[in-house]
Amino acid sequence: MRELHRYILLATTAVLLVGCGLNDGARQPAPIKEIKPESPQPAPPTTVPPAPALPQDKPGPVVQPPKPAQPPRERVWNWSGAVQPMVGRMLQVGGVSAGSVLLVDNVNNRTNGSLPTAKATQALRSALANNGTFTLVGDQQLAMAKQQLGLSAQDSLGSRSKAIGIARNVGAQYVLYTSAGGNVNSPTLQMQLMLVQTGEIVWSGKGGVERIQ
């Protein structure tokens, strides 16, 4: 009886072992877990520190550029209004033969300042043009005579004696010597008609010159 129990125990043990083996063969393999690659993490944005603010210069006062110096305004004189009445009175002097040759010298500046007299001389010659009493010495002839004295055509003879001397060289019978004198801001024009042969002053006149501007 004891042998029978041992046999049953052994048989039961064998059956259990076989069942365990069958169960192990039928067991499904555990699924392999798929390992996904980790996605790269985005890099944190690079933060650039702001540039330090530069100090603002305070606006200074606006400096105006210096204005260019204005040239002095040229004074304008009414030479024609001064010489024409005087020339009219001179042409009425008696004892002058019609057609006598007259040397008209440039107007001299005898004022206390700088006074351009070229326009005065031009006005004087214009007033004597076609006068019917005197024949004027030509500009070219007068320029050549001045050149012999070392003067330019624009220079005045400077003195009555020089004017008379050059008048003799050009064959003139009369000389008209004219000068502007007094204050340069209100000059006075003076004329003298002289006889070349004797130096005698046969007529003289004086008058103020009006300033236009």
Automatic annotation (TrEMBL):
This is Penicillin-binding protein activator LpoB. It holds the Pfam family LpoB. PROSITE patterns: PROKAR_LIPOPROTEIN. The keyword Signal applies. Its main location: membrane. GO terms for cellular component: periplasmic side of cell outer membrane. One of its GO terms (biological process) is peptidoglycan biosynthetic process. Belongs to the LpoB family. GO terms for molecular function: enzyme regulator activity. Signal peptide: none annotated. The lineage of its organism: Bacteria, Pseudomonadati, Pseudomonadota, Gammaproteobacteria, Enterobacterales. Keywords: Cell outer membrane, Cell shape, Lipoprotein, Membrane, Palmitate, Peptidoglycan synthesis, Signal. Interacts with PBP1b. Residues 29-74 are annotated as: Disordered. It is found in: Cell outer membrane. Residues 39-53, 62-71 have a biased composition (Pro residues).
